[in-house]
Amino acid sequence: MAGLKYIVYFIIVVLLQVLVFNHIFFRGYMNPYIYIIFLLYLPIATSRGLLLITAFLLGLSVDIFENSGGIHASASLVLAYLRPAFLRLVSRRQGADLEDLKITNFGLPSMLVYSIFAVFLHHFILFMLEAFRWSDVGTVLVRTLYSSIFTLTFVLIVQLWNYRRRS
Predict the structure, then answer these.
(1) CB–CB of 116/108 below 8 Å?
(2) Higher pLDDT among residues 30 and 74, named by residue
(3) CATH number of the 2-166 domain
(4) CA-CA distance, 131 to 134, in Å (whole number)?
C-alpha cells in the first residue's frame, strides 16, 4: 500500500511541475523545479537501484513534457546518486532507525543544509546541460541561485506544512 502512495505522489508532482510550475518564468532567471521534492524526501531505506530508476523516470517525465532532451533525467540521476552522501553529511544519527526525511527526525538546520546542497546541485547540472558551454557559467550560476531560492522556498513550505499537520 505504501508503494501506491508514492506512485500517486509521483504523478501529482509531475503534473504540478508540467501544468503549473513550468509556466512560471520570472525575469529569465527564476524557474522553479519542484518535482525534485519527490526525490529529496523518499524514505531513507529506498534501495539505491530503485532510487536511480525513480529519478530517471521522474526526470524523463518532465523531459517529455518540456521536450528538453534528457537534461532533467540527467540532473535527477546525479541527485539520486549523490543523495546518500548528502544524507550522511547532515545526519546526526546513522540513519538505521530513521525512515522518513522529516524535520522532526533531522532538525530544521540539517534539513535545510541537505535541501540546499541537493537543490543547488540539481539546478546547476540542469542549467549547465541546458547551456552546454563553460563560457555561460556566470549566467548558469545566477539562474541556479535564483531558481534554487524559489525551489527551496517551496520545499521549506511543504516541509513545515507536513510538520504542523503531523504535530
Answers:
(1) no
(2) 74
(3) 1.10.1760
(4) 8
